[in-house]
Amino acid sequence: MTEQSPSGEHPGTYDTAAWKEIVLQYQKPSVPRAVWQLANTLGPLAILWYLMHRFQSQPWWVILPMAVLAGAFLVRIFIVFHDCGHGSYFKSRTANDVVGFLTGLLTFTPYYQWRWSHAIHHASSGDLDKRGVGDLWTMTVQEYLEASPGRRFSYRLSRNPVFLFVVAPLFVFLVKQRFPEKGANKRERYSVYWMNLALLAMATVLSLVFGWKEYLFIQLSALAVAGSAGFWLFYVQHQFDGVYWERGDEWDYTAAALRGSSFYKLPWILQWFSGNIGYHHIHHLNSRIPNYNLERCHEAHRIFQEVKPLTLIGSLKSLTFRLWDEERRKLVGYRHLRDLDSGRRTAGQ
Predict the structure, then answer these.
(1) Beta bridge partners of 263
(2) pTM score of the predicted model
(3) Are 77 and 106 contacting, i.e. CB atoms less than 8 angstroms apart?
(4) Structure confidence at residue 346 (pLDDT)
(5) How far apart are CA 1 and CA 3, in angstroms?
(6) Strand 263-265 to strand 309-311: parallel, antiparallel, or no bridges (unpaired)?
(7) How far apart are CA 315 and CA 235, in angstroms?
């Protein structure tokens, strides 16, 4: 298939057979790597909860930094959960499902329902005709112009940074995920119910240990940090300058992976806490590659390294993107709407 290069700056060729052969060796799970990652993630989190228990009689500002750090470890735990959902963390399906449920408990996420909706995201990412499940609400310029005032208000609210990265994460993890999604089958629905019971049991036990006020303070603080960071990562992985979007008949899986998913080049410590998910172009190319192999896969071939990296500072520009302009084939902000309106008025004079 001949396509634009991953960077979008010069023509190139995507050799599907070549990249499939390259990634094959990296999609093999490693039990030692997986167990070590679980140990260096769950272990520190357990220590933090113990310390917060010991210091719970201290002022809130003593415990809050530990709760924030616990939130950072929850991000890393969610990546483990995420890999289990793809069946990539362990070779054993049973091991993936068990660890997936337990890490889902820590991140307040029902395992089978999330796995179902996330699979839809992977199968449709970058396809304008298949939006709506497992993705961020993104309207085209034309759709926004034709929308009712109420729908425009809802869309603007959903794209407001405070709502998107502060309110929405807590709503999703605490409220939305307590209910089955429309279209979910029996297994997905029951995974929500079982997770709700497990969460109730966990909250009851920890409330008895800490006291319910102290538990809520710690849990909500950690979850708020993890949710905000997680939503930001998901946002910049598919909302960046040069991102790929096409209609169904023109959509291509390889192009959607290499051009529609960012290579988010983070400082080492942030890359560690985010479980290498910044190599999102590799992950969307082959979701069976466990997170602990993503960096090595990225370094294995030039086709992956041609993807233009998105830096931490550069990613802030993504906050200005609101709509997809099908004519210009790029994400634009609301200012573009004013420019359109101004141009029409000028043309009408």
Answers:
(1) 279, 309
(2) 0.91
(3) yes
(4) 52
(5) 6
(6) parallel
(7) 10
First to last CA, the chain: 47
Burial of 51 (0-12, 13-18, 19+ CB in 10 A): middle
DSSP 235-258: HHHHSSTT---B-TTT--HHHHHH
Distance of CA 314 to the CA centre of its chain: 18
What gap in Å lies between CA 28 and CA 152, rounded to an integer? 46
CA distance 82 to 134: 13
- Contact between 279 and 297 under an 8 Å Cβ cutoff? The reply is yes
pLDDT tens track for 24-67: 889 999 999 999 999 999 999 999 999 999 998 899 899 999 99
Q: What is residue 301's predicted lDDT score, i.e. its pLDDT?
A: 81
- Residue 20: predicted pLDDT: 77
Give the single-character DSSP code of 14. Answer: -
Q: φ, ψ for residue 330 (rounded to 5)? A: -160, 160
Q: Per-residue pLDDT averaged across 235-243, rounded?
A: 94
Could you tell me where the DSSP H helices lie in the chain? 16-24, 31-54, 60-85, 93-106, 111-124, 141-146, 149-159, 161-162, 168-174, 186-210, 212-238, 253-260, 268-273, 280-285, 294-298, 302-305, 335-348
Crossing angle (nearest 10°) for helices 93-106 and 186-210: 50
For residue 286, the SS3 value is: coil
Q: Please, are residues 285 and 254 in contact by the beta-carbon 8 Å criterion?
A: yes
